[in-house]
Write a structure and sequence with these properties.
heterotrimer, A mainly alpha (219), B mainly alpha (226), C alpha/beta (240), A: 219 residues, mainly alpha, MetI-like fold, 0% strand, C: Rossmann fold, 10 strands, globular, ABC_ATPase_HisP-typ (chain C)
Chain lengths: 219, 226, 240
């Protein structure tokens, strides 16, 4: 971005690149958070489903993430880190909070998935001589997670949209970039239109891919 | 580490924050009310089959797709900056209300479609066979059953509206998050202020969920399982 | 009196009723038998105007059901209907299920409507279930509730659409007993049924439907004793 910042200049080709870079930022942030959040969430979901003793602690704890606005969670964490003498970039802080948020959502869904695989089927797996771990890995998790796949896709799309909130920490993702451009170019509708198109381009492949997989699994 | 925290100024500001929490509730409730009305209209428009109604159907399809596939903050910016470009300048309250109502309507349209599909067509036929008018059958037989089917998603959406209203902070509305930010920036005790705000949000959401459950119990107890 | 003249009914290209002529007199009990898909249920829906017709006429006490300007809501009050899937209203108590239509359709005051409802519910043996919700009732009880609900409108005719087909075998008897009781009280009834015992014993006449037409109609002892049509013979051989 070597443009000299002057006010009220029109929208230029370079600005599109600026938006594309910011969209890449949105994608990185969401992909990383979803990957970490899913791994963590499946583990937590397994604990909720299989280790009943963890429920009194885990259930209310995970509930906090769904009962406090994400924007508040972001501000809180970002301001907490320096208090314990650490430093985190807005991107890193955003990743941590989004991952925790995603994990809380995935945990609930993963638990439902695991619990959807009934006892008879587990017994059948064990009766074939599988160990608990084998039955979990080869039967319960693949089947259970498949049933909640649509819900997981919903979380993925949700996290991608919610990543826009990391802009409050100063990270320039898609929406923050649009805001900057709007201030400079005063072409709000056009910039928002482009940003909206980017969001569609990010979320449609996911929806499309999910719909295709769902169809294939139903057969 | 305790010495790092200063809670006293936050506690002094607590009455202001609680008052702001009521603004949050009002905004969320109002946006839900508008969202329900618009959502019902969109749900009906999506099922129009007449060729003349095609524009209404396409509007509904586009609305739902936009509301569900873009961030709520994007929608808020649209009503803020976007309409500003057409010379329509709205107050922060109007921006948040418009954005949230737009979002609620998009999600609730799908909820209502599902709710109406959950009531078997045979219920309408049975009501008609007793001599009820279509209107009577709708209001007395179908709608109460739809209400039960959508109660849970409706509650979720209300919780969502409360959480989303915190975006008001970014467009200058002094609801709970906005008021918290205003107070915090004066004192630089950002963590403490937002921690208290988080607790208030948590309590508000829990009370809402609890209230909805109690009402559901009163309204729907004894009904057949869904 | 219900008169049906040259009734045709098409669903798209499929012609379900192919020219029905039939008259049912006041006080008569008519049973309609025949294989599934022979158009029996559709006929009932055409009689109370829940399905539009393609051709012909249906007259109920001289009123043309499908004529433009016929007040169907008013007409349906004369025609009680009981469905295969009993269709009780799950959000209303047993008493409210029965009292609702008398209140909002007939315009009775609440107390009067509930009195009518209570009387009908006692009549079908549900007098002790008034405050329950349908979910707490068995299928047979829900079907009797549906009968009471229709009777509370004080109809002139009752249409039964396979009222026992969806019930567990052990619950069929209580519903048939209720229908028998109605017949004995002189109610005019058209019963689409798979219960040959009931058709034979309770009906004044039996109509056999085959592919959208009345293949044979007559008194039950003729129909079951010495059927003329080979199709009816084959049908009876299969179901009896």
């Amino acid at each position: 971005m070597s443009n000299t910042v002057t006010y009220f200049t029109g929208f230029r080709g370079a600005d599109l690149l600026f938006l594309a870079e910011a969209a890449w930022g949105t994608l990185k942030l969401s992909a990383l958070s979803i990957a970490v959040g899913t791994a963590l969430g499946v583990g937590l979901g397994w604990m909720l489903a299989e280790l009943r003793a963890t429920r009194p602690i885990l259930v209310p704890l995970l509930d906090v993430f769904r009962s406090v606005p994400l924007i508040i969670q972001l501000v809180l964490f970002f301001n907490f880190v320096p208090m314990i003498g650490l430093g985190l970039s807005p991107f890193a802080a955003g990743c941590v909070v989004l991952s925790a948020y995603a994990a809380a959502l995935v945990a609930q869904v993963a638990r439902a998935g695991i619990e959807s695989v009934g006892r008879p089927l587990r017994r059948a797996a064990r009766s074939l001589g599988m160990s608990y771990g084998q039955a979990m890995r080869h039967v319960v998790l693949p089947m259970g997670l498949r049933t909640v796949f649509p819900a997981w896709v919903g979380i993925v799309l949700g996290v991608m949209k919610d990543s826009s909130l990391v802009s409050v920490l100063g990270y320039v993702e898609l929406l923050r970039a649009s805001q900057i451009l709007i201030t400079r170019t005063q072409e709000a509708l056009f910039v928002l239109g482009v940003a909206g198109a980017f969001y569609f381009l990010l979320s449609w492949p996911v929806s499309w891919w999910a719909a295709r997989h769902e169809k294939r699994w139903q057969q | 580490m305790n010495s790092n925290f200063h809670w006293r100024p936050v506690l002094r500001a607590l009455p202001d924050l609680i008052q702001a929490a009521f603004v949050t509730l009002e905004v969320a409730a109002l946006s839900m009310l508008i969202g329900v009305v618009l959502g019902l209209a969109l749900a009906m428009a999506r099922d129009f089959t007449a060729p003349a109604a095609a524009p209404a159907r396409w509007l509904a399809v586009a609305w739902v797709a936009l509301a569900r596939n873009t961030p709520a903050l994007f929608q808020l910016y649209f009503f803020g900056f976007g309409l500003g470009a057409w010379g329509i300048n709205m107050s922060p309250l109007a921006i948040v209300l418009a954005g949230l109502s737009f979002n609620n309507a998009g999600y609730l349209a799908e909820t209502f479609r599902g709710g109406f599909r959950a009531v078997p067509a045979a219920q309408m036929r049975a009501a008609l066979s007793l001599g009820m008018t279509r209107m009577q059958a709708m209001t007395r037989i179908v709608v109460p059953q739809v209400l039960r089917a959508v109660w849970h998603p409706l509650t979720n959406q209300m919780v969502w509206a409360v959480l989303m209203s915190s975006l008001g902070m970014l467009v200058g509305l002094h609801e709970l998050a906005g008021e918290t930010q205003a107070q915090a920036s004066r004192t630089f005790r950002i963590f403490e202020y937002f921690a208290v705000a988080a607790v208030i949000y948590y309590v508000v959401v829990k009370l809402l969920v609890l209230g909805a459950r109690l009402m559901a119990w009163r309204l729907f107890r004894g009904w057949s399982p869904a | 009196m219900i008169q049906i003249e040259n009734l045709h009914k098409k669903f798209g290209a499929l012609e379900v009723l192919r020219g029905i002529d039939l008259a049912v007199n006041k006080g008569e009990v008519l049973s309609i038998i025949g294989a599934s898909g022979s158009g029996k249920s559709t006929l009932l829906y055409c009689i109370n105007g829940l399905e539009p017709i393609s051709e012909g006429r249906v007259l109920v006490d001289g009123v043309d059901v499908h004529a433009r300007g016929t007040d169907l809501n008013r007409l349906r009050q004369r025609l009680g209907m009981v469905f295969q899937q009993w269709n009780s209203f799950p959000h209303l108590t047993v008493l409210e299920n029965v009292a609702l239509a008398p209140r909002i359709v007939r315009g009775l005051p609440r107390a009067k409507a509930e009195e009518v409802a209570r009387r009908q519910l006692e009549h079908v043996g549900l007098g002790d279930k008034l405050a329950q919700y349908p979910a707490a009732l068995s299928g047979g009880q829900q079907q009797r509730l549906a009968i009471a609900r229709a009777l509370a409108m004080e109809p002139e005719y009752m249409l039964f659409d396979e009222a026992t087909s969806a019930l567990d075998p052990e619950l069929v008897g209580e519903v048939l007993d209720t229908m028998r009781m109605l017949a004995a009280e002189g109610m005019t009834m058209i019963c689409v049924t798979h219960e040959m015992g009931f058709a034979r014993e309770v009906s004044d006449r039996v109509a056999f439907f085959h592919q959208g037409r009345i293949e044979e109609i007559g008194r039950p002892e003729e129909m079951f004793g010495k059927p003329r049509s080979p199709k009816l013979k084959r049908f009876l051989a299969k179901v009896l």
